[in-house]
Automatic annotation (TrEMBL):
Any GO MF annotation of the entry: oxidoreductase activity, acting on the CH-NH group of donors
Domain MnmC-like methyltransferase: 141-219
Signal peptide range in chain numbering: none
GO terms for biological process, alphabetical: methylation
Keyword Transferase among UniProt keywords: yes
Protein name (Swiss-Prot/TrEMBL): tRNA (5-methylaminomethyl-2-thiouridylate)-methyltransferase
Top-level division of the source organism's lineage: Bacteria
Keywords: Methyltransferase, Transferase
Name of one Pfam family that matches: Methyltransf_30
InterPro entries hit by this protein: MnmC-like_methylTransf (IPR008471), SAM-dependent_MTases_sf (IPR029063), tRNA_MNMC2 (IPR047785)
Amino acid sequence: MNIITPTADGSNTLYNETIGEHYHSKHGALQESKHVFIDAGLKFTSANLTEISIFEVGFGTGLNFILSFEYCAANNIKLNYTSIEAFPLPTAVIEQTGYAAYVLEVIWADFISNYPDALKAPQKLTSLCNLEIPHTTLAEYQSDQKFDVIYYDAFSVQHQPEMWSDEIIAHACSFLKPGGVFVTYAITGKLKRAIKACGFTIEKLPGAPGKREMLRATKAEG
């Protein structure tokens, strides 16, 4: 069962009773999503692009997606967004988050009306936005597509250690283009070693509220 829970910045998150963890930071769901994934990931990578492809590990509530959708729409960037989710939330639960308040009404409407179908097949939300949410685990996911950015937003290593093994990190990184960017809210010595072993350059950035640091890594060219 998932329980709506307020966070410190006034935005809500969900508490997953099965996993024993919140979907977003209790210090601020909205702040964390903007800081880690939009600012450090999307804005950093899309500076000179007119089209961008994002691979997200853990669609969850869709917060990272709607913020990415709005940013790309505002900046005339075509967004191709793929986000795997092993346990998709019902539409009614996503609507209860209150996240409609954080994006333009048209962005939310395009998202929520297409969400159920995006779980089954790729959907064209607008001329500038495509969304697909494969109902699968990262370990089982396969694709020939290569992405510009990975949002790694799995539950923490304490609650979902299998999502942070060297093997699964390498599998995720295999979907990035040369020069592509991997961002996540976490940073540990083990994670840094796993990423470096895949041929990445590591950056330690200031973390979102409640976290001292976060990780951004860039895949070697060629």
